Amino acid sequence: MSWLINSSIGRKLIMSVSGIVLVLFLLFHLSMNVAAVFSAEAYNTICSLLGSNWYAVAATAVLAAIIALHFTYATLLTLQNRKARGSNRYTVSARPKGVSWASQNMFVIGLIVCGFFILHLSQFWYNMMFTEVLGHEEATLCDGTTIGTTDGAAFIEYYFSHLWVVVAYLIWYTALWFHLTHGIWSAFKLSGGTMRYGSNDGKLSPTFWLRSSSSASPE
Amino acid sequence: MDKNINIKVKIWRQRSPKEKGFFETYNLENISQGSSFLEMLDILNEKLINEGKEPVVFDHDCREGICGMCSLYINGHPHGPDEDVTTCQLHMRKFHDGETITVEPWRSAGFPVIRDLMVNRSAFDEIMQAGGYVSVNTGGVPDANSTPIAKDKAEMAMDAAACIGCGACVATCKNGSAMLFVSAKVSQLALLPQGRIEAARRAKAMVAKMDELGFGNCTNTGACEQECPKSISITNIARLNREFLSAKFKD
């Protein structure tokens, strides 16, 4: 299996598969957060179901490993690609029509996503799962407020009452949107999906999924 | 209507692969907009020779858009601002009076500059030698329909075979990747029964050679497809990924 590391397509497969796993995690996370919109009680039930139970901690460890893999390969590929571009840069270069901005700036957008991800972990994961793993039942925040580690709804209410947090999360979602519009499309392209009839501008259309599955095989 | 224009051309000069290059700007007067871009360079070279200066070195051959010899990165686009044409088919009517036109060589680690605007594209030949062929002599032209081939496949193979190997895809790719070229060469054979037999071996060998020669990793930006003078589709890249991955998983 050394071709996974030694060939360009193998390395891209690692990026694509780890990326798809992270997208699936985001969908899982999203489906839980939706509960908080309707009922604080329901959301807290989910929080206590996960908490610091062994399966939640194990899944977090796997997730951390996948994020590390995705990040390491992103860095490696970016460095290799810069080297392949050569030491002399073009004096005049233009982005061709039909090439999305996101597709040419995936690494930078990824760094923005990572930055806010650290903020998000420090606000929620650190005070919820990590504090509970350490054996505490309540987390003390920087202004002295104490919130129970499984009271997720209270954490949401506390943090999103600060305007800067709301703005920060909106920036995060925008960056994530651009990263995923190219990322998901590219991952499908890599694993052999094709957009034979559509435009190749990296936008996801509802019919894309059908097209990518129906034209996946040349036979 | 075509008229005569006065232009400035800012051209990359580099005496040898090792020496440092620099830009030099030349004034050209009364250039007919009906002339081609390469004819404009011919006029410039004639002028330089008459002045006792070194002419600008650039690649060209058939001048009808089929040999893949011409290159040039003109105003930020490989083969210039026009769509779906090679540099030799680009006309001066795409430029206006008083314009400064920047002309650079392909810049990529895989294509080192030989001199001025001429780059060494023999890396593409090496990739072809690694597997871009059918190993047996398939004989003369067979009778029509003696080997039935579905129309859509025949068309996709022909579209892939339109690749002239000019290297615009590598030149425009922010990753310096040669995937569009390699995928077109793999596709034109993999889609037809004569080439299908060796498809797996071919995909593995050509990708290995491409990686070995220092081309970058494709990230599906699609710039290659947009700038390709022959409109080779990145669907071919998806096909190459599939050929390569299924061959590796079978091993």
What would you note in describing this structure?
The complex is a heterodimer of chains A (219) and B (251). By secondary structure, chain A is mainly alpha-helical. Helices cover 70% and strands 3% of the residues of chain A. Chain A has nine helices and two strands. Chain A has helices at residues 3-6, 8-38, 40-50, 54-85, 101-104, 106-133, 152-159, 163-190, 208-214, and strands spanning 138-140, 146-148. In chain A, α2 (8-38) crosses α3, α2 (8-38) packs across α4 (54-85) and α6 packs across α8. The longest helix of chain A has 32 residues, at 54-85. Residues 194-219 of chain A have low confidence and may be disordered. The mean pLDDT of chain B is 94. Chain B has nine helices and seven strands. By secondary structure, chain B is an alpha+beta fold. Chain B starts with a strand and ends with a helix. Chain B folds into two domains: 4-114, Ubiquitin-like (UB roll) (Roll), CATH 3.10.20.30; 121-250, Orthogonal Bundle (Fumarate Reductase Iron-sulfur Protein, Chain B, domain 2), CATH 1.10.1060.10. Chain B has a five-stranded mixed sheet. A two-stranded antiparallel ribbon of chain B has the order 6-7. At the A-B interface, α2, α4 and α8 of A face α7, α8 and α9 of B.
Brief summary of the model shown:
Chain A contains nine helices and two strands.
pLDDT under 50 segments of chain B (min length 5)? none
Strand content of chain A: under 5%
Rg of chain B, rounded, reads: 20 Å
Report, as a whole number of angstroms, the end-to-end distance of chain A. 26 Å
Question: What name does CATH use for the topology of the largest domain in chain B?
Answer: Fumarate Reductase Iron-sulfur Protein, Chain B, domain 2
What is the total domain count of chain A? 1
Give the N-terminus to C-terminus distance of chain B in angstroms: 62 Å
Largest sheet data of chain A: 2 strands, antiparallel
Write the element-wise H/E pattern of chain A from the N-terminal end onward. HHHHHHEEHHH
- State the share of residues found in helices of chain B, binned by percent: 25-40%
Structural class by helix and strand composition of chain B: alpha+beta
User: What would the average pLDDT of chain A be, to the nearest integer?
Assistant: 84
Query: Biggest interface in this structure?
Result: A-B, 49 and 51 residues
Number of strands of chain A: 2
Silhouette of chain B: elongated
